[in-house]
Amino acid sequence: MEVKERILDAALKMFRTYGMKSVTMFDIARDCGISKKTVYEHFTDKQGLVKESMQFMLDEQLETYRVCQESAQNAIEELINGLKSIEWLAKTVNPVMLYEVEKYHPETWKAVQEFKQDGVLRNIKENLKRGIAEGLYRNDLKIDIVARMRQLQLESAFDPAQYPADQFNLHEVMYQVSAHYILGIATLKGHKLVNQYLQINETD
Question: What is the pTM assigned to this prediction?
Fold first, then answer.
């Protein structure tokens, strides 16, 4: 791994854990085992490092969406496999980090908002279209409405104000929210697959 990639990886790991404001360039240099001068050779200032590290994280997530889409045999499998990535992201990102990006790094926050629109929302819409074409999702769905509803569901699962960590298990929240969503959009044919993937007991 090149020095710049090591710095980005270390910075993102620390930002995810502690937030951005409390992490210094010296902290990142020490974690990488390099001098602070070397960090500044690759990044002019912390603002630039924040911007690139966040973009690195967003690009990774987009790549995950692509892999889930291409490797899944159908829309339902794609959606469920994607949940694992979303759950991992929620577990590894401190909400403080996103709050600080919004408050102190407006240009980077703009990239996050664009990711929500061009990445997350587009991915949900493409999955809905695929599921309809495969006969697994109802063909009367209003894609623009349902996709935004799904996006809000996911964002609420990330929100500690809605599901405090000391009261709710993230895995259970994601399971319940997603099972409700999938069963609501699936056809009878789709329900059979959902039951297999989520191991739902039809007699419950």
Answer: 0.84
